[in-house]
Each structure stands twice: as C-alpha cells, then as structure tokens.
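My current task is to audit a protein record that another person submitted. Alongside the sequence sits a line of tokens, each denoting a local backbone shape. Where you disagree with what is written, explain briefly why. This is what I was given:
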Amino acid sequence: MRWVASLVAETHRILTRGGVFLYPRDSREPVKPGRLRLLYEANPVAFLIEQAGGAASTGRKRVLDVVPSELHQRVSLIFGAREEVSRIEEYHEESYELTPTLPLYGTRGLFRTAAG
C-alpha cells in the first residue's frame, strides 16, 4: 500500500504497476459524497483508466455515468483493475447490521458497561 497524496502520481503508479486506488466516501461526514471533484479530477482519471482497460467507480456506479449537478460536485473514487473494482463495488452493495455486542463496534469509554 502506498499513498503519495497526488491523484496524478497515484494514477501513473496504478497504470504502470497495477493495483487499485480507493478514496471512498467518509461515513463521518454523510453530507459530503466524497472529496474529489467530479468534473476536473474524477472524470479525467476515470476516462484514462477505462481506456487502459480498467474500471472507475464511485462504489455504487461507474464514474463516467454520474451526471454533474454542479461545477464543483464531489464524488468518491475507486479505480484500477476491473476485477478489483467490481469486487469493491460488491462490498459497497452489501448491507451490514452492526450489533452493539460486537466489541470492535461497541461503545468505547474508560469503564465497560454490561450489555443489557
């Protein structure tokens, strides 16, 4: 795993070495659908990746199928090998019901309380 913090450099690395790029939506900020701008970041990269035989997705649909509603619209972006992107889309489609009895997803604090 490598993070260069440059979309162009990451795209070049994935085109030359393979792999997958993930910049999904942040569940902490549900109002924002992603961080990358659709028209001048996600769409150009998606076009290049698809021309090279890969795939680019928002996690739910193909990036190039997203109709922009505003100039600076933001989207999540996942791109790379077609099979890997397809698998990640399947993960996004699955629904998970988290129960509070799971210790990883339970309430954290200084003191544990009995599940009731």
In short: The chain has a mean pLDDT of 86. The helical segments are 7-17, 38-51, 82-93.
